[in-house]
Design goal:
Layout: E1 6-8, E2 14-17, E3 30-34, H1 58-72, E4 79-81, E5 90-93, E6 114-117, E7 123-128, E8 132-138, E9 143-149, H2 151-155, H3 158-168, E10 177-180, E11 190-192, H4 193-200, E12 210-212, E13 217-220, H5 222-232, E14 240-242, E15 266-271
Parallel strand pairs: 4-7, 5-6, 10-14
Antiparallel strand pairs: 1-2, 2-3, 3-15, 6-9, 7-15, 8-9, 8-10, 11-13, 12-13
The protein binds zinc ion.
The site of zinc ion has 6 residues, from loops.
Length: 275
């Protein structure tokens, strides 16, 4: 099994991402995925809930965001948060967007599930509780991106949309690194046949992507569907890394499925950092 690309930080508020083959570079992006540890929220949001759109105390969410900001050394004033509607729309973020959606979700970037930037002054963020975080990095062009892919975003091919947008800007697919972060695994993700119909339309090699367990029930491997879409879009296998963590199996994380929807949110983040 390949090495886990996400490793816990000292304070365990976050797992830090190192892109494959880039670990030696000292100008790697600042990237990672938060855990549910060491925050201030009460049950069922205990403890590091980072989502304002769940019925947690907003003061606690803001305090939690500050805890993460301090741990990863990225001030809230740099963060940018998108609204996330399970779509496949992307927005290019610039310094003008600094702080949007950070202290209140009403000024988040509207109707967007993918963000990318060439600007060092922003940290791209997105919220998760089982959906798949996709991290993109083009070292030569100094560009980073982040996408939120639940089954809807995955089957709308937000992964391919990001690759296409970068290609339009002259970035070659073979120069792009992608990491697939902690999310619900095939072990815990039961779906019905209407979801599988959306996967079948993608015309991928579906052998290991899902398994039928009863008449209308399947176990779906969303990380691997995204892997196949990324390979199809031209990402080199050696530039692709996949987290082994299942958010439903591991008590490091909130899980929408495990906790029947009454739970908090983790945050994925990526930024180019200062030079
Ligand atoms: Zn699992």
């Amino acid at each position: 099994m390949a090495k886990e690309p996400f490793q816990a930080t000292m304070k365990e508020t976050s797992l830090e991402l190192k892109f494959p083959g880039q670990a030696e570079r000292d100008d790697q992006p600042i990237a990672g995925f938060s855990t549910r540890r060491n925050g201030v929220s009460q049950t069922p949001f205990s403890s590091l809930n980072l989502g304002f759109h769940v019925p947690d105390d907003a003061k606690d969410v803001l305090a939690n965001r500050q805890i993460l900001a301090d741990d990863i050394g990225q001030p809230l004033s740099k963060w940018v948060v998108g609204e996330q509607i399970h779509g496949s729309s992307l927005v290019k973020i610039t310094s003008k967007d600094q702080g949007r959606g950070t202290t209140d979700h009403h000024d988040a970037i509207p109707a967007v599930d993918g963000l990318y930037t060439d600007d060092r002054s922003v940290l791209l963020t997105a919220l998760y509780a089982d959906c798949v975080p996709l991290y993109f990095y083009a070292p030569k062009e100094n560009r980073v991106g982040l996408a939120h892919a639940g089954w809807k975003g995955t089957t709308k091919n937000i992964a391919g949309e990001m690759m296409e947008a970068w290609k339009q800007d002259g970035i070659k697919p073979e120069d792009i690194y992608v990491a697939i972060g902690p999310s619900i695994g095939k072990c815990c993700y039961e779906v019905n046949d209407s979801v599988i119909d959306h996967v079948k339309v993608l015309c991928l090699n579906t052998d290991s992507l899902f398994e039928q367990t009863s008449n209308e029930k399947y176990q779906l491997d969303l990380k691997s569907v995204n892997r196949e879409l990324l390979l199809k879009a031209g990402v080199q296998r050696s530039h692709l890394s996949i987290s082994h963590y299942c958010t439903s199996c591991s008590n490091l994380f909130f899980s929408h499925r495990r906790e029947n929807g009454k739970t908090g949110r983790m945050m994925a983040y990526i930024g180019l950092g200062e030079v």
